[in-house]
Design brief:
InterPro entries (chain A): 4_helix_cytokine-like_core, Ciliary_neurotrophic_fac_CNTF
Distance between the termini of chain A: 14 Å
Largest interface: A-B, 21 and 16 residues
GO molecular function (chain A): ciliary neurotrophic factor receptor binding; cytokine activity; growth factor activity
Shape of chain A: elongated
CATH topology of the largest domain in chain B: Immunoglobulin-like
CATH class of the largest domain in chain B: Mainly Beta
Radius of gyration of chain B: 36 Å
Number of strands of chain B: 24
Subcellular location (chain A): Cytoplasm
Largest sheet of chain B: 5 strands, mixed
Strand content of chain A: under 5%
Number of helices of chain B: 3
CATH superfamily of the largest domain in chain B: Immunoglobulins
Order of helices and strands of chain B: EEEEEEEEEEEEEEEEEEEEEEEEHHH
GO biological process, one term (chain A): positive regulation of axon regeneration
Number of strands of chain A: 1
Strand order of the largest sheet of chain B: 1-8-7-3-4
Number of domains of chain B: 3
Structural class of chain A: mainly alpha
Oligomer: heterodimer
Helix content of chain A: 55-70%
Function (chain A): CNTF is a survival factor for various neuronal cell types. Seems to prevent the degeneration of motor axons after axotomy.
Chain lengths: 195, 335
């Protein structure tokens, strides 16, 4: 893991982390706006509790402070890849439901999807920097989900966006942890260890 | 054997003298003082529409033998109103605390029971020794979208009441105000004030969970505040202060990403640097010297004035002499 400890690698990591933090911050702000618009357009109750939906990665984590750098990157990457697929599906459903009638919401969804893809790529860069193999994406992605009713689709969308907003906050925290230099080597804590 | 009874304010209370018959001759006392017979119905003591001042020890004595037949401690109070509950995380991401109080006193002992549910999971809120009406919880999970539900039940001998709070992890995050706020003038800068502060000591990890700050300042003579939001750093230089005016300054903190602003810090006062007019300085010194002496006036030696370094250059001597003469003239007038 010598490469991970070199001064130039440490600088690149810090740079990638800072940019990632800014990306995640912007993404979160846009997701929160999208969430407000989505709730209103879909006629949902903002305070409705949505049961954990299958396939939506939960941001909730125990012992977050004990995670290694690699764990953080891998979990983040898996989550954003899942969100990429979920948002693409929501966009598709949106177009089917409303056609051109709600172009604003569609555009906002597409913009967030773009940011999610960019962030996933950013995470891959960080993993490559640590000479960690970037896990390949499974085949064609997850199997197509069962056809949901319109109302179920809307609730699912709410769940997706809420978890994405949480993930965006978590990612900022994760990247800050990653950016911390470790006292002895100057490398980020946990990244040199195997998972 | 002494009894204890609780009664509501405004209730009618009937006390029996133990196992004595209704028509027995008895004497009732309250806190050692005899109670007038008009309050008796046979051997029963009747207290109508009781108020708080009627709390005390009631004793019943058999008429002739003066044997104590019955004793009870009466406590007049009210059932609890809906309690006021507040939960807050000032030490994110470690956990949060909840504190409570009753809007009006009941005047009798109350017990509080608090339950915290996260989704389907019961959590234990550990009671603090001090202050009493407070408990704290450690977060087991972070970044959860599942809400927390806190229910506080208050019970006393006359009734019970409860209240519930539902919130999510981010909503209750509110740091304590910044500490050690210091404001100083900046030398040779009549419109600047340098303000510095520290993160609240209760915030466990400012490196991973950085705070941002809000500064507000105004001269004492005005009512409107100026505001500055600062996304990092724990100091700021105010550059638009009114020269010579005393300012009041406060700072608040917020987690960079979630939650709400803290309360304002303790206020500090500062006045920007002002240039000391040189001749005024020397006159002030002379006036102090002369007012201290009670004997006949003595002109202060001019060397003394000039030694203070208040003036420089060759024109100095003339200025010093002139100042000395002017002050001497004034001093003569005042004596």
């Amino acid at each position: 893991m010598a490469a991970a400890d070199s001064p130039s690698a440490a600088l690149r990591r810090r740079d990638l982390c800072s940019r990632g933090i800014r990306l995640a911050g912007k993404m979160r702000a846009d997701v929160v706006d999208l969430l407000d618009a989505y709730v209103e357009q879909q006629g949902l109750d903002a305070s409705a509790s949505v049961a954990a939906v299958e396939g939506v990665p939960l941001a909730a984590v125990e012992r977050w402070d004990e995670q290694t750098g690699t764990q953080r990157l891998l979990e983040n990457l898996a989550a954003y890849r899942a969100f990429r697929a979920l948002l693409a599906q929501m966009l598709e459903e949106q177009r089917e439901q409303l056609g051109e009638a709600d172009a604003g919401l569609g555009r906002a969804l597409a913009a967030v999807l773009l940011q999610v893809s960019a962030f996933a790529y950013h995470l891959e860069e960080l993993l490559r920097l640590e000479s960690r193999g970037v896990p390949g994406e499974e085949g064609d992605g997850p199997p197509p989900p069962p056809r949901l009713s319109l109302f179920e689709q809307k609730l699912r969308g709410l769940g997706v966006l809420r978890e994405l907003a949480q993930w965006a906050v978590r990612s900022v925290r994760d990247l800050r942890q990653l950016a911390k230099p470790s006292p002895a080597t100057g490398a980020a804590p946990g990244l040199a260890e195997s998972p | 054997e002494s009894h204890l009874q609780y009664e509501r304010v405004g209730a009618d209370v009937t006390m029996k003298c133990g196992s004595m018959d209704w028509d027995a001759a008895v004497t009732w006392t309250v806190n050692g003082t005899d109670i007038d017979e008009s309050h008796l119905n046979g051997s029963y003591l009747i207290l109508k529409n009781v108020n708080l001042s009627q709390s005390g020890q009631y004793s019943c004595y058999e008429g002739s033998s003066w044997h104590l037949k019955y004793q009870t401690f009466l406590r007049v109070g009210t059932p609890p109103k809906e309690p006021v509950l507040m939960c807050r995380s000032n030490n994110y991401p470690k956990g949060f605390y909840c504190s409570w109080h009753l809007p009006t006193p009941t005047y009798i002992p109350n017990t509080f029971n608090i339950s915290v549910i996260h989704g389907t999971k019961d959590m234990v809120c550990e009671k603090d020794a001090v202050p009493k009406n407070r408990c704290h919880i450690r977060y087991l999970q972070l970044f959860s979208t599942v809400k927390y539900k806190v229910t506080l039940t208050v019970t006393n001998a006359l009734g019970k009441n409860f209240t519930t709070l539902t919130f999510d992890e981010f909503a209750i995050v509110k740091p304590d105000p910044p500490e050690s706020v210091v404001a100083k003038p900046v030398p040779n800068n009549p419109r600047r004030l340098e303000v510095s502060w520290q993160n609240p000591s209760s915030w466990p990890d400012p490196e991973s969970f950085p705070l941002k700050f809000f500064l507000r300042y105004r001269p004492l003579i005005l009512d409107t505040w100026q505001h500055v939001e600062l996304s990092d750093g724990t100091s700021h230089i105010i550059t638009d202060a009114y020269a010579g005016k005393e300012y009041i300054i406060q700072v608040a903190a917020k987690d960079n990403d979630i939650g709400t602003w803290s309360d304002w810090s303790v206020a500090v006062h500062a006045t920007p640097w002002t240039e000391e007019p040189k001749h005024l300085t020397t006159e002030a010194q002379i006036t102090e010297t002369t007012s201290a002496s009670t004997s006949s006036f003595m002109a202060p030696p001019t060397t003394k004035i000039c030694d203070k370094g208040a003036v420089v250059g060759s024109g100095a001597m003339a200025v010093c002499w002139t100042a000395g003469l002017v002050v001497a003239a004034y001093s003569v007038l005042f004596i």
